Amino acid sequence: MDVSKCLAEGDPQGVTSRGQHRTAHTDRFPVVHTYPMPPVLFWLLLYSCCLCQGHCHPYDRLREQNTEFAVKLYQKIVTTENRTDVVISPSSVARSLGLLQFGAQGSTFTQIEKTLGYNVFDKSVKIFMKSMHRELTNSSQDTSICLACALFVQAGTPISTQFTEYTVQWANSSLQLTNFTEHNRTAIQINQWVNRNTGGGTETMVAGGQFGSGFMQIALVSTMYFKSKWKTKFSFTDTQTLPFISTDGSVVKVPMMHQTADVAYGQFETPSHEKFTVVELPYLGNTVSMFVVRPTDRNTPLSSIESNLTSKSITTWANTMKKIKMDIFLPRFKLESYSDLRMALSALGISDLFDPRKADFKGISEQKNLYVSQAIHKAQIEVEEGGTRASGVTAMVLLKRSRMPVFKADRPFFFFLRQASSGSVLFIGRVTNPLH
User: Fold this and answer.
1) Residues near 288 by Cβ (< 8 Å), separated by ≥ 6?
2) Average pLDDT for 263-289
């Protein structure tokens, strides 16, 4: 029996593990009505859970914790860095923190565990992460995914053999030795590593002046690059130059892609009754989809929708949206973001690892004063008609009017790429001006 598909995942008829039938919902808290469960069904469900041998609930919890971390990290980065256009890969950051957790002890370990919601030494966590990474990086000719993390550690630091073994086993991670006293050489080493792990698209990520001296240091670096083809391609000949209303109210002309397809679509509202729409656009293979979220009212700020985002709301959207044939308009855009995670992670409760007096990494080395001096994250995403770089020719086509429903992302929106099987948010970002 596949323990990752146990009872707690639910069934297509909408019956929950407690015999509940969902009859209504909001975007955050589904409303359920409870009916008596037939005795035979109760025992069958109980037997199924026993077969799972405790894996059902841990796996569901891990899915939710992964999503919750993604949401909170995104919200912190958007607010602490005051970003307009941004993209991050929460999955990449989480794996980097997981690698650090192997070597952390004391309150440093506790802070990472509390923020991630799990302990990497737990066997179920290791199995879940390994399975998720294997599926995620199973690239084909239509999909390219590069996920990697590295710890750059001061040369001469005696590294624990056990930690080195953890590094080799943990999600395309590596341990790199460097000399932080040679600032420029360290920057070149990190930049070269990043360039190799972002499809060759990043030449400069750090500068030599970012590194201090006086303590033994660790630089935590994580990257993720994603490029794939749509399940239903946008027709390049249908791409038009259309107006997009940016955050400040100004209008810019952007290349707006178009497709007519059967997509999952839903209309929701926040607890304060601000309405928004969500559309799901799958990539080839149906393992990853892009969810595009846009306020319904032009006067509703995107931040009011983002601030109410939770892991439960994302699960609700994915489970309750309905298939409908409609016209989709989505701007062509490419985002590339660099993030210094120190402020965002500290705001999430992970602060000791950045303090040379409090950081405890005795699991990495018995060397004192070992701390994280840099936490660097790079993410890139490119959204185009067919998933490959478009040529320089722009076709101007006036689309015929249609009576079908229309979803037009002609105002600021946020998006996230979600892996269907694990529910993990691979990327999350916002677009306020597609031309940036």
Assistant:
1) 143, 228, 282, 417, 418, 419, 420, 426
2) 91
